[in-house]
Here is the input.
Amino acid sequence: MFQSATYSSRSEHEPTGDGIGARPIGWPLLEESTLRPRTDRLISTAGVSFNSLSDEELLGRYRDQRRRNDFAELIGRHSVGLARYLARQVGDASLAEVILEETFLLIDTRCGLYRDCWPARTWIYAVAFHRAVEVRRRTVASQLAPRLRTVEDS
Here is the structure.
């Protein structure tokens, strides 16, 4: 397993430690506590054992029967890892949390597109990845639009 480097509080964000898995200099710092998604809105699954069900079975059952507890279990299993993945993709923990919520909304509305032969985790991360790409594309376009207008006016 790779070890991640720790960062100093200096403005250069220089990695310290062994450097394995280190972020390039200039990337924003992401605190461990900011990578945990909000769980206050999750559905309680108390008293229900999902240990024997795979992600594929849960997602397939949710797609077919719309069981809320199945979806809540998927959220519980994947939200922390997905939040970290999205934070690495976009470089901003608060934006990653927004994309995470949008991802689970997309999974809810588009779960009919999921096929039983696909790995559920890969499908969930693909939905998140494509959402992050769309957000980054919009962000870059909105940052470039004023510059393009300035060049056209000149």
Summary: Helices lie at 55-65, 68-90, 93-110, 120-153.
